[in-house]
Amino acid sequence: MCGGRGKRLGSMTKKVPKPLVKIGDRTILDYKIEQYQNQGFNNFIFCIGYKGELIRDLINNKRGINAEFSDAGQNAGILERLFCAKNKIGNQVLMSYGDTFTDIDLYKYFEAHQQSNNEVTIVTAPIENPFGLVEFNHENKVIQFQEKPILNYYIGYAIINRSALNLVPEKVINMPDGSGLITFFKILMGMGLLGTYFHSGLQTTFNTKDELKKAKKDMIRFYTLPKSTRNEE
Hints:
Layout: E1 22-23, E2 26-27, H1 28-38, E3 43-48, H2 52-60, E4 66-71, H3 78-84, E5 92-96, E6 100-102, H4 106-114, E7 120-128, E8 133-136, E9 142-146, E10 150-161, H5 170-173, H6 179-190, E11 194-198, E12 203-205, H7 209-224
Parallel strand pairs: 3-4, 7-11
Antiparallel strand pairs: 1-2, 5-10, 6-12, 7-10, 8-9
């Protein structure tokens, strides 16, 4: 998914879309493609939108990949972009956000999905909430307080069966931003067809300049530390 504007990055995305923001001397999209290729995945569909021609230029200069493009326009939501590419996918597709990088083992992920009865299997990861969570009763009495709890979050990776797309009402497809996708997931959850794959390794994404700084540190650490020590901290 490479169609977003990345407005919260301010001036950084006035000239380039968010997947082309540099982390070091390369874009996060470069890192993602390399990670897929290293695991033997070479067929890609790039769902473009905002400044999509720049992504086309980057991809067309790469070797060793089979690339197709799907353009649902600048204002399309995530689910609408997925449906726009529907005729290009096979029986199933790995959907991932263009601003998210993980060291997930894709073969193990696909194996887990195929051994389930899920129509969609999303990736979740443990992330520390930066705030204290408070629960209170009808009298506004605090009954529980958790200081910076570690919660499981959806991190923008999902294996989706083509058949799952037949279960989405048309009115959901064109919902803005990510609301259509989440509604889609909730529909499948209610049918018992949404599963999860837990990933405790590297995951990094960015929506703000501060998050971009952290992403840069994460990527430097990933590419400089020995594999056996990456998850020790």
